[in-house]
């Protein structure tokens, strides 16, 4: 049985980035750059999301000969719905709440 989903701030960052281009396949290296997460943080998150059925994974052949295949990731329909729900239900950062309070 898969472990319960851990929805840390880092996981939310990954889910949000995957939702930006929902139907595209994403490389781990590109996700690391886009989210600012180190590989030791990112790849365990991707593994957990795949175990939960939130991500599809596949090996993609390289564009140029001599390069190794790369693992790619894409949200499933279930994953996209769950990601949107988790992101929408996430409390706003305190700094944003304070900025709104001060400016109104």
Give the H and E element order: HEHHEEHH
Class from secondary-structure proportions: alpha+beta
Largest sheet: 3 strands, antiparallel
CATH architecture assignment name: Orthogonal Bundle
Describe the structure.
The chain is of the alpha+beta class. It has a single domain (9-103), classed as Winged helix-like DNA-binding domain superfamily/Winged helix DNA-binding domain (Arc Repressor Mutant, subunit A, Orthogonal Bundle). Helices cover 54% and strands 13% of the residues. It has a three-stranded antiparallel beta sheet. The longest helix is centred in the middle third of the chain and has 13 residues, at 39-51. The radius of gyration is 16 Å and the shape is globular. The N and C termini lie far apart (48 Å). 15% of the residues are buried. Residues 94-104 have low confidence and may be disordered.
